[in-house]
Amino acid sequence: MKKTLMLLLISMFLISLIQVTALYSDSPQLKVTLMSQDPDPVEPGQIVTAKFKVENNGSQTSKDVVVKIMPKFPFTIYGDTPEKNIGQLKALATGADAAIVEFKLKVDDDAVEEDTELELAAYMGEAGVSYTNNEFLIDIQTHDAVLAITDITSEPSLIAPGSTGKVTIMVKNTADSLLKDIKFKLDMSGSSTPVAPYQSSSERIIAQLNSNFQQTLTFTVIAKPDAASGLYKVPLNISYNDEKGTSYTQTDVLAVIIGERPKINAYIKKSTVQQAGKNGKITLEIANAGNTNLKFLELNLLPSEDYQLITPSSYFYLGDVDSDDTESEEIEVYVNEGVEKLKLPVKLNYADANNQPFQQQFDLELQLYSISELEKFGVLEKSKVWIYVLIIILAVGGFFYYKKYWRKSKNGKGK
Fold it and tell me: If you average pLDDT over every residue of the chain, what do you get?
């Protein structure tokens, strides 16, 4: 029993002695470890502080230890020196006894988002140890992986109530790394949203998108039949992951314009002008025959060789004209001699419900008639001048006949 215990103690002593001998060498044994980077991760264009721990697992160094950093793209020394003398290291200078050394580096603006190698060496005179095989890696990563919407188009640009349209989105990966599982979902659940998906889902998926690449996706929508004209914002929810599995979400909006091109007509509603060489009043009427309301309607009478304007102004402001409604204005003109068909050019300026400006010109025409035509149509009573002339002729003739006859009779009695 005692022999067994003695052998066990001797064995344990020998094992401990072997471990100490293995740990302690009669020559210095340097070991460098990357303790931290600040910030972690670091973004392209930022300054990063790399902190290293230098340990000695052997005997005390006889010479000063110099730690040298060997930066290459995308790293450069920033306000610092590439070499630092940390003096002699004691034997078994590990743990709390180890030396700490820091370097400040600037990350290039064009750095790629990835774990990037940083090379370093520790020297004792000519001897030393180098770390050049991806043993020190600095994590470079943008703060947020950004998926940007670069363009939104709608075809047609105005979606009429009850009609369909296509909204196309172009997205770009502005991050430095691949983005995956990109999901786009239009939120059309709100009661105020005037559009709905048409023969398709409100969701689109892009499996992956490389850095600086773009891709388009299209949603087909239909406007509600009773949708009022206007600009509507439809929420777009986006989610995706980067290469490291970090999830991102963002919300954007799509602008959808409901409306249609205005349908407006101008015409002469009534007129007292029927002949050339006469003056009279003309009533002009503007009709909104479309589904969209009109705003800021202006009427301008344009010059013409057919007439002279008696009304003081050739400009009239009519204001708003709702759908299926009319506005009118009365003018007075003198029609020049020789005109058979009066041409009355007018120009209209207005805006639709979305404040888009429009301009239209109408050449209104008014047929003129001769006196005989107006009499034929019953517009004018036929002239009775010839009757009065005939009566006068007969009266004059009767007078002379009577006078002559009366004289003859008088003379015959006298004989």
Answer: 84
